[in-house]
């Protein structure tokens, strides 16, 4: 059987955090060995909200650097910047012609962003169509993401089906790979909302490059309830449940075992143990990060873009052909 393809993307908006890592990036790294893997720094998605063009190049390189430090291996994975592969935007346009606006109106991420005061523009509105194009462009079968991208993936599957029904079987229908625990890492400042890059409160998230001291401080100050029992209950004890999930993913111990071990030890002891587990998990990433230099990253990304364009163009010719567009 042909090797299956995995695709995923990360926005270069800085502040890569524990949620990104435990929800998605850890799986990206794991899948490299058994899949044909394609990973992308999605800079076209990042410009759908206000940004500083001067700072943007730096942010893009920084995102690439973090992903390389996490363990993306350019010898195993196709790894590049989205804006250097114009076929993404071309396919997004084509898929856009098949996307009912009623479907886009239901996208919760779009509605949340607009509700938070982010100016509604066409790019922000059609963001999920570009995401579908990213995935379908390479005929991806599997998409490792956190829970917040579930709805976008559903829409991608729907678009792939619409396209195939109209023009013939071109795209596989991709599956989401969403982890069982830590699919939705919650904010340390408010465990009822998700940990996010854009929260103005820095204590709400652990960054994957935070020093051990900072990690420990943030975890110790994570919001919890006043009943000192450590047990898993997302509704009654969202803060402790969040920490249990994080610790379980970092250590490989089941939540039941962790509850058995820390159930009666009090929050102080438990939080120290969570901090130890997170610090140990992030240590190799911090150390790999310091070894990387910008020249090397630029070289890797140039090569990635070249390979990605070649591959994307091969697929995109088929799309032009079946849709009746002029070949390039
Ligand atoms: P982005 O850059 O916001 O986030 C990158 C990945 O991190 C996951 N994630 C989380 N997982 C668990 N808990 C959290 N608190 C948390 N916050 C974020 C996200 O689910 C994501 O997997 N739209 C995407 C980027 C994208 C993409 C794609 C992804 C563009 N094209 C094609 C997959 C396939 C996004 O905004 O990711």
Please characterize this protein's 3D structure.
- The structure is a single chain.
- This protein is mostly helical.
- It folds into two domains: 5-182 and 293-323, Rossmann fold (3-Layer(aba) Sandwich); 202-289, Tyrosyl-Transfer RNA Synthetase (Orthogonal Bundle), CATH 1.10.240.
- It contains 14 helices and five strands.
- The protein is globular.
- Bound molecules: tryptophanyl-5'AMP.
- Tryptophanyl-5'AMP binds at residues 7-11, 19-20, 23-24, 42, 45, 131, 134-135, 143, 145-146, 148-149, 183-185, 194-195.
- The site of tryptophanyl-5'AMP has 24 residues, from β1, α1 and α8.
Order of strands side by side in the largest beta sheet?
1-2-3
Termini separation comes to 31 Å
Number of domains: 2
What is the level 1 CATH name of the largest domain? Answer: Alpha Beta
Bound molecules: tryptophanyl-5'AMP
Q: What is the CATH homologous superfamily assignment of the largest domain?
A: HUPs
**What series of H and E elements makes up the topology?**
EHEHHEHHHHHEHEHHHHH
- Helical residues, percent: 40-55%
Query: Per CATH, which architecture of the largest domain?
Result: 3-Layer(aba) Sandwich
Helix/strand structural class = mainly alpha
3D shape: globular
Strand content range: 5-15%
Number of strands: 5
Supply the number of helical segments: 14
